[in-house]
Amino acid sequence: MTPTITAFERSPDRGRGLARDMRVRWALEEVGQPYDVRLVSFSEMKQPAHRALHPFGQIPTYQEGELVLFESGAIVLHIAQRHVGLLPEDANARARAIAWMFAALNTVEPPIVDRSMAMLLERDKSWHEERLAILDDRVRVRLGELCSRLGDADWLDGAFSAADLMMVSVLRRLGGSGGLENYPNLCAYIARGEARPAYQRAFADQLAVFTGRSTSG
Ligand code: GTB
Which atom belonging to ligand 1 lies closest to the Cα atom of 70? Predict the structure, then answer.
């Protein structure tokens, strides 16, 4: 059964692949699962029909037959569990990869999102600079810790897995902020993720929504 995901009809990032449908597209490309995309407008996302799929009126959602999922982490985990290629076979290695997925979403992503929300919504506030310094510091702490753990390794724990897919997706949101410059190993890690053919296909497909160009053929 071909799953259907939802994505922004008009993404504010203008096709830079920062909205959370990108990580779902990437996972589906990694496992070779074809999928359909239903584009939704901001107003559609808040209508009852979409809220029946996503209680918070957001993207992405994932529909596969009777199954409806929301939350990009849950969706990527579902894809990784149902297909070969995104999680190790060994039970302990699999548990560690899932722990890293949670770390990406629960420990690394929050300070990054807080920072980007401050840049987006709070720039005109008198306290913006002061708050930004605090948020930058929180991001720096997490990046420093991640940088130390990754060291010279290619991926977080052995072979590429859904953990790396999620961590690279989260770190990409810092692109252009200057926040990654002091961490050459993290920059190289992101570049390794972005160089994967599955990433490239997913990126091209979400960009095509913005440019209106077809990616098939
Ligand atoms: N925890 C949920 C998940 O991981 O799936 C969060 C889902 C979420 O935040 N969805 C956003 C959304 O639907 C899109 S991805 N927002 C509309 C709303 O809440 O009304 C977040 C996002 C949006 C845009 C950019 N950008 O333009 O750079 C980056 C990230």
Answer: 5
Is the minimum distance from the CB of 13 to ligand 1 under 6 angstroms? yes
Cα–Cα dist 48/52, whole Å = 6
Separation between Cα atoms, residue 87 and residue 96, nearest integer Å: 10
33-43 as b/e, with b when 16 or more CB fall inside 10 Å? eebebeebeee
Per-10-residue mean pLDDT of the chain, 217 residues long, equals 96 94 98 98 98 98 98 98 98 98 98 96 96 97 98 98 98 93 97 98 96 75
| Best residue among 8, 14, 20, 210 to mutate for probing ligand 1, ranked by most atoms within 8 Å of CB | 20
Cα–ligand 1 centroid distance for 180 (angstroms):
22
Helix (H/G/I), strand (E/B), else coil: 14? coil
- Tell which residue, 85, 96, 77, has the closest CA to residue 24: 77
